[in-house]
Design brief:
Distance between the termini: 36 Å
CATH architecture of the largest domain: Sandwich
Number of strands: 21
CATH class of the largest domain: Mainly Beta
Strand order of the largest sheet: 5-4-8-2-1-11-13
CATH topology of the largest domain: Immunoglobulin-like
Low-confidence stretches: 1-24
Mean pLDDT: 94
Largest sheet: 7 strands, mixed
Number of domains: 4
Amino acid sequence: MNRILYFTCLISFVIFSCQNKKKEPMKSQILANDVHSYSQPNVARVVHLDLKLTVDFEEKVLSGTARYTIDLAENATQIIFDTYDLNISSVFVNESEEAKFELGTKDRILGQALTVFLPEGAHTVSISYSSVPSAKAVQWLDPEQTAQKDKAFLFTQSQAILARSWIPCQDSPGIRFTYRAEITVPKGYLALMSAENPIEMNEKGVYNFNMPQPIPSYLMALTVGDIAFKPIGKRCGVYAEPIMLDRCFNEFSEMEEMLLSAEEIYGAYAWGRYDVIVLPPSFPFGGMENPRLTFATPTIIAGDKSLTSLVAHELAHSWSGNLVTNATWNDFWLNEGFTVYFEQRIMEAVYGRDYSEMLALLSYQGLLEELEEIKAKNPKDTRLKLELDGRDPDDGMSAIAYDKGYLFLRKIEETIGREKFDTFLRNYFAENAFQVMDTERFLELLRSKLEKDQLAEIQIDKWVYGEGLPDNHPVINSEKFVNVDKAMKSWIESGDINRLDSGSWSTHEWLHFINNLPEGINNQELAKLDDKFNFTHSGNTEVLAAWFQVTIKAGYAEAHKSMEDFLVNVGRRKFLTPTYKALIERDPSKEVARNIYKKARPNYHSVSTGTIDELLDWKG
């Protein structure tokens, strides 16, 4: 970018940004060493971002300028950013002074360090850049890959360390910053971010955003498409493609009640609004807790609100993760274990204990299966405190952090009592709001509140630093599942499928039933079940995914076409991984799985392809 063009852009940029805050000396807080970031935040760190981007659907590129207000230690001479395949065109310091910079050697996981050399008195750094079409965080969807099928769509997924592929940033969860943004999109499109959002399109296609609370880079999010909005209560609402909007609105009608229940437990919601956007089906996760705007998969739209615990989970992240954030990805359980615990509390408050215990027991059963898989690969990964040096932090995003973390916190609650534990957690969130937390500091806080006999009962170190699941873990009971087991036993013993009294079963009871079908069940029995309950063509993705585990293993051909369509059209990694694994177990040559994947892969986000490529030894 030449100087004349740069200054023209800068004048426009200054108008929309919050601009020139007086530089203050670096705070004395010592930040954790994050092995997944090149940044050296104890020397120089970002505190505010003014982002200006243009979205080009034809070239599949984001281009513009990231202007950072920075905080420096005494005598700091450089600041380091994380990048991954970004094209850096120029760097300026203090608005007008062209800066020397260099890009380091590219690492397969971490990308490249962008080192900017700073003159004395530096307080801002402006980086002009563009992304590449294959940016790992960004998925560009053609119109036919959307529900509406008439306009293109894009969304980002920055967790864990993918923000660096669409914004040069200090890509560590321990570094928080506020931001403003101006996003220019083609006319007829709406842009949304993890910030204060518009609720309707404007004619110019220029949208301005503000995030006044400091967030880490993995919570930076952008989506652009043909999107409409519908409010749910005073502080909640749902965004979706117009053709999906009413279904999503009906599914999430209890969102405001969830928010109120959450506040009653752990204090005031700190982010203004809580909205959800339902994305196209290629979104790789169930949900992503981007502040103010949860990104969600359409696979939770079941028509009966049976899968909305995901909304409770992402809402809970407004406290655990977004408000108090894991310092590094080795401490990931501090985000997710707390969030599953809080999710269960919200679901119990809204739907009752019987309901939440079904959810907890299903998660526990899934945890036991995943524990065995992880033990076979790397037993250390069954610890809550992880060791991810030299590895992709995505490797730590397993049921260990979520469900072992939940059981640990539930063990504490059952030992000291819910009222005392709620008081502890409410104070924990209030006293550490908008800060980071590591495992050791949290355990220090916890131990300071426990009696000796309670410490002996809980066995903290065994939970956090020990492998596997401690034998003192909470026991989860579900009377509803007991009744399912009785009905199943009656059916098996009598051979009469009509003995399955399932008229009032919820999705969770059906999942328990399918997950516990007899080993070696034959195709004739599967056909009878399918004729009566229509599992193969269920509109519930959780039921489908569970059913395919059984049908693939049994070689039940009647379900193959539905299973293939499912894999081609759904990009949620939670469903893809076990389904492809089942196909491989059935056919170790991987030929069947690879043939399906060849058709399905273009519909998947890089988060999903990264996992399935490795599973199938995919060479393209």
